Amino acid sequence: MTYQGSCHCGRIAFEVDGQVDGALACNCSICRRKGALMWFVPRSALKLLTPEDAASTYSFNKHVIRHRFCPVCGIHPYGEGQDPKGNAMAAINLNCIEDLDLAALPVKHFDGRSL
């Protein structure tokens, strides 16, 4: 299935292929503040519909995740990094996906604060 998503103002728009079967809520310092519900997919499943440079990047701590956000509206639609095997991954903020029933998804809680 292909999902459509964007930041609030539309400066960052994307499509992502896959099947959303759950969400991850992390309590690390940035995810807790963003209130994001994440869905992880191979980076190749994420297709940007707007130029990549429309998004700003924030990295902190070990600088292994590129938190991508809109410099206009401030919304964080996705992040980029690698899985433990070195594969390129995207973390999609499910709150930025159009017409997705978030209440119907199981949410796994991850203790990122303790890492």
Description:
A five-stranded antiparallel β-sheet has the order 4-9-8-7-6, with no helix packed on it. The chain is globular. The protein is mainly beta. The chain has one domain: Metal Binding Protein, Guanine Nucleotide Exchange Factor, Chain A, CATH 2.170.150. 5% of the residues lie in helices and 38% in strands.
Query: What about the largest sheet?
Result: 5 strands, antiparallel
Number of domains: 1
> What is the tally of beta strands?
10
Shape: globular
Mean pLDDT: 94
Indicate the percent of residues in helices.
under 10%
Helix count?
1
H/E topology pattern: EEEHEEEEEEE
Query: Segments where pLDDT lies below 50 for 5+ residues?
Result: none
Helix-strand blueprint:
Elements: E1 2-6, E2 13-17, E3 23-26, H1 29-34, E4 38-42, E5 46-48, E6 56-58, E7 66-69, E8 78-82, E9 88-93, E10 107-110
Parallel strand pairs: 3-10
Antiparallel strand pairs: 1-2, 2-5, 4-9, 6-7, 7-8, 8-9
Defining key terms:
115 residues; mainly beta; Metal Binding Protein, Guanine Nucleotide Exchange Factor, Chain A; 5-stranded antiparallel β-sheet; globular
